[in-house]
Specification:
Layout: H1 2-22, E1 25-38, E2 46-52, E3 61-64, E4 68-74, E5 86-87, E6 106-112, E7 117-122, H2 128-133, E8 137-143, E9 155-164, H3 171-176, E10 182-185, E11 188-189, E12 204-206, E13 211-218, E14 225-230, E15 234-239, E16 246-250, E17 253-255, E18 260-266, E19 273-279, H4 282-285, E20 290-295
Parallel strand pairs: 1-4, 3-8, 9-13, 12-20
Antiparallel strand pairs: 1-2, 4-6, 5-7, 7-8, 9-10, 10-11, 13-18, 14-17, 14-19, 15-16, 15-18, 19-20
The protein binds copper (II) ion.
Copper (II) ion (CU) is lined by residues 50, 83, 123, 125, 131, 136.
Length: 312
């Protein structure tokens, strides 16, 4: 019995050190850029855009459960105001790591991505609704270590939704949910929907029968998102993006403001189909929150893989 316990403890020690050896430190740097960006596919409607590295949403950060993120935020001297960074997966001190930094300053902190999932990150400088409404948000994906109940996806796409307020300086209106005129998907209305906007240049693509995985974040200022794939079903919904929280077979799942989640859809294997991924709250769908997923044999092999998990 004693020998058995000894062998067991040796195996356990070897296993734990192997796990630690696999965990990495991932360096991430983001630089604030205050600019203007279009919210429509034609490129005519410009918005005030405060950004991380110039894009809305910011770049996708992707690490593995247990990894350490070594993060630096740079706020250049020519910025007009303080900014900050808040990763929803980071367990730190809100008054320290997430504190704002003035133009010309930088901020460095580290955190361990302890739980798998899909998490929002955003600027938390005051007034926070204005900084988020101006585009200072993005997604960090923490891939799970345990993939027993997490089938491999054939394609992966990131979608981030945001209410568009043309006048973000009116923070009272933001708080009262007044005056939003659009729903942005990855920064633009109907971004991947040529059915409702002939200027839309891209759609999500997959082959019939492939497992398509959507990493979704609700970056709305106030509203939840009733995420539904029209002409399809969610095969699995991993609440928060964590496979320990798996729901099977849903038509619609409600995503709270700031919530992230992972949504798998598998189209019929025997024919080409189209699915429209919408916020079924009509006020959002008809103002831009519709994304077309085309399942067809000649799907672009690069889409939904590598850098193209977020289509720019
Ligand atoms: Cu900011």
């Amino acid at each position: 019995m004693r020998k058995f316990i000894l062998v067991l403890s040796m195996i356990l020690t070897a296993f734990l050190s192997a796990q630690q050896a696999i965990a990495k430190t991932v360096k991430v740097t983001m630089t604030v850029l205050e600019t203007k960006l279009p919210v429509d596919n034609e490129g005519k409607v410009m918005r005030e855009a405060w950004t991380f590295d110039g894009t809305v949403p910011g770049k996708v950060v992707r690490v593995r459960e247990g990894d350490t993120v070594d993060f630096t935020l740079v706020n250049p001297i020519n910025s007009s105001m303080p900014h900050s960074m808040d990763f929803h997966i980071a367990e730190v001190d809100v008054l320290k790591e997430f504190a704002s930094i003035a133009p010309g300053e930088s901020k460095h902190f580290t955190f361990t991505a302890r739980l798998p999932g899909v998490y929002m990150y955003h600027c938390g400088a005051m007034p926070m609704p204005q900084h988020i409404a101006n585009g200072m948000y993005g997604v960090i994906i923490v891939d799970p270590k345990d993939t027993k109940n997490y089938p491999k996806a054939d394609r992966e796409y990131v979608l981030v939704q945001q209410q568009y307020f043309p006048d973000t300086s009116d923070t009272a209106a933001l708080l009262e949910n007044r005056g939003w005129v659009g729903s942005l998907i990855n920064g633009k209305m109907f971004r991947y929907d040529p059915v409702h906007d002939s200027n839309a240049k891209q759609v999500l693509e997959a082959k019939p029968g492939e497992r398509v995985r959507i990493f979704f974040v609700n970056a709305n200022i106030n509203n939840p998102v009733a995420l539904h794939p029209i002409a399809g079903l969610w095969d699995r919904v991993y609440v928060g993006g964590n496979p320990k929280n798996t729901l099977f077979g849903l038509a619609t799942y409600n995503v709270a403001a700031s919530e992230g989640g992972t949504f798998d859809i598998v189209s019929p294997a025997d024919r080409s189909t189209n699915v429209a991924i919408v916020d079924h709250a009509m006020g959002a769908a008809m103002r831009g929150a519709i994304t077309v997923l085309m399942n067809k044999p000649d799907a672009d092999p690069l889409k939904g893989r590598g850098d193209q998990i977020i289509l720019r």
